[in-house]
């Protein structure tokens, strides 16, 4: 049961997410080369429908920047936006099936270092991408997260290019907005001024400043303001429906499967990240999330919307604004629906610079220096996969960055397993040297080289204890190495071999009677 306090927090959070989501929906639609209303439709359904079905308390869904390249290429390949919409519908059906097959559980195998690295990488990307918008240069569309941009620039070169197109009015609006947001947050003014979050105050102040700048050297031009369709005719013009006659089109099915797989992966990653961001650390059922996303994409495709995923930018804005339950995501969707239909003219007065200020702070919080210090203190096994993920997300894109981080994590896991296959102890006693090889619970072929090297380097005239009493599995390759050592190396070096737990659990090929030039004991 929702408390009054939760409802108030969620209402404020929903309003903040609405302000962040509005330009992102428009920007992603622009980047996808479709009508702006397609992005808005996706945002509305992502908020209301997925928000209602999902059991995630803080995750927010909408059109995803990671799908832009797929959308543009697919529409060109299929030759029709209506055929593409059919692919979106079928992608939703596939996601629904994946949810019932419990495929969402795969998200549990992604290491924490990779998830945190993804969040930090997205934070840095958000921060860098907003700098041009903060100074009044909007050549790259809002919501782009890739390093190589559609305008031919990179994330870094775009920042330097923006310096040639500086708008003093935009810079001033951005600075004032950042100061307002910091003061509002530091002194918790939204608790004193009910239902008035810092982001809304910044937006109102920016609209006033933009109006005052008209006709002066600080004037903000129309290109730097939000652009929504202002009439019902413009809105309805962007509505489309799927072309079901293309159901047997193999290219369309390829697109459908591509969208389903990529959208599902991004959603699972973002939901894992959302659970990390959630102050209450609540668990989201990934299989239910896939079902919710499937239903959302089916509805979005049916009425002309873009495919959607759970999105970290909206989710982090939601958490930072103090969201308590999924009501905030639903409210953000309702606000998108109501405001786009009723007050688009007022929304079109908002400068991108003030929205950039909101996102700059969100980006900084996601990539806080404290996070880097924390993972550095964990050691290289955690820090390097974290950093590799960060660099990959910033320097390429989200999915490839996560894959790089996941690959590096696997390498470190294998390396750690190789090192921990056994414990090597060397004890010097009065009656000679005893070397103990205590094998781990699992000894695979990956441990073959290190065990072989250790056995080969055992000095002459020593006693070797190979202890496998706690071992549940030894690979055949390793057993053969132990047997070769017993039959050959230990004979040549006059080494006494004591086996514990080998013959009881793991049968050597040879019989003890074959060994006649050395002493072998079996200890139980």
Automatic annotation (TrEMBL):
* A GO cellular component entry from the record: membrane
What UniProt keywords apply to this chain's record, in alphabetical order?
Membrane, Transmembrane, Transmembrane helix
Write out the transmembrane intervals: 12-30, 36-53, 58-75, 81-101, 113-131, 165-183, 195-213, 252-274, 334-363, 383-414
Q: Does the keyword Transmembrane apply?
A: yes
Q: How is this protein positioned relative to the membrane?
A: Multi-pass membrane protein
Query: Which InterPro entries did the record assign?
Result: SLC26A/SulP_dom (IPR011547), SLC26A/SulP_fam (IPR001902)
Cell compartment(s), UniProt: Membrane
User: In its keyword annotation, does this UniProt entry include Transit peptide?
Assistant: no
Residue ranges of every copy of the SLC26A/SulP transporter domain listed in the record? 8-376
Q: Which GO terms describe its biological process?
A: transmembrane transport
What is this protein's record name? Probable sulfate permease
Tell me what organism the protein belongs to.
Flavobacterium indicum (strain DSM 17447 / CIP 109464 / GPTSA100-9)
């Amino acid at each position: 049961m929702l408390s009054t306090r939760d409802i108030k927090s969620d209402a404020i959070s929903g309003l903040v997410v609405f302000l962040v989501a509005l330009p992102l929906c428009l920007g992603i639609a622009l980047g996808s080369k479709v009508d702006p209303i397609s992005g808005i439709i996706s945002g509305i359904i992502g908020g209301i429908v997925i928000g209602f079905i999902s059991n995630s308390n803080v995750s927010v869904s909408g059109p995803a920047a990671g799908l832009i390249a797929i959308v543009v290429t697919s529409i060109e390949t299929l030759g029709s936006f209506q055929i593409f919409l059919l692919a979106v519908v079928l992608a939703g059906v596939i996601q629904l099936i994946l949810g019932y097959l419990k495929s969402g559980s795969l998200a549990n195998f992604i290491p924490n270092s990779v998830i945190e690295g993804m969040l930090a990488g997205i934070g840095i990307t958000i921060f860098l991408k907003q700098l041009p918008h903060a100074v009044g240069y909007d050549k790259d569309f809002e919501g782009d997260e890739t390093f190589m941009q559609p305008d031919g620039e990179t994330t870094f070169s775009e920042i330097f290019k923006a310096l040639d197109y500086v708008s003093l009015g935009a810079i001033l609006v951005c600075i004032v907005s950042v100061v307002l947001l910091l003061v509002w947050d530091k002194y918790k003014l939204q608790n004193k001024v009910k239902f008035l979050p810092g982001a809304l105050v910044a937006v109102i102040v920016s609209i006033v400043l933009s109006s005052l700048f008209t006709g002066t050297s600080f004037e903000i031009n129309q290109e730097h303001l939000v652009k929504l369709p202002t009439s019902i005719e413009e809105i309805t013009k962007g509505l489309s429906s799927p072309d079901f006659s293309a159901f047997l089109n193999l290219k369309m099915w390829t697109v459908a499967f591509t969208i389903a797989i990529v959208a599902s992966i991004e959603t699972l990653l973002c939901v894992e990240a959302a659970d990390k961001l959630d102050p209450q650390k609540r668990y989201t059922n990934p299989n239910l999330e896939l079902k919710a996303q499937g239903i959302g994409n089916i509805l979005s495709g049916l009425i002309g919307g873009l495919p959607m995923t759970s999105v970290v930018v909206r989710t982090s804005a939601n958490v930072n604004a103090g969201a308590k339950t999924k009501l905030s995501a639903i409210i953000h969707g309702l606000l998108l629906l109501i405001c786009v239909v009723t007050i688009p003219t007022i929304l079109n007065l908002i400068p991108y610079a003030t929205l950039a200020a909101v996102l700059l702070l969100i980006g900084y919080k996601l990539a806080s220096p404290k996070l880097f210090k924390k993972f550095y203190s964990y050691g290289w096994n955690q820090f390097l996969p974290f950093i590799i993920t960060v660099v990959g997300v910033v320097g390429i894109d989200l999915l490839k960055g996560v894959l790089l981080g996941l690959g590096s994590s696997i390498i470190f896991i294998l390396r750690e397993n190789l090192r921990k296959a056994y414990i090597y102890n060397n004890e010097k006693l009065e009656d000679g040297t005893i070397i103990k090889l205590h094998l781990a619970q699992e000894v695979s072929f990956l441990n073959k080289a290190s065990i072989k090297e250790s056995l080969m380097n055992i000095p002459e005239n020593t006693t070797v204890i190979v202890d496998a009493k706690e071992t549940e599995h030894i690979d055949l390759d390793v057993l053969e190495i132990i047997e070769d050592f017993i039959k050959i190396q230990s004979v040549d070096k006059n080494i006494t071999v004591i086996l514990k737990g080998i013959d009881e659990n793991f049968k050597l090929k040879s019989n003890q009677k074959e060994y006649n030039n050395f002493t072998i004991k079996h200890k139980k």
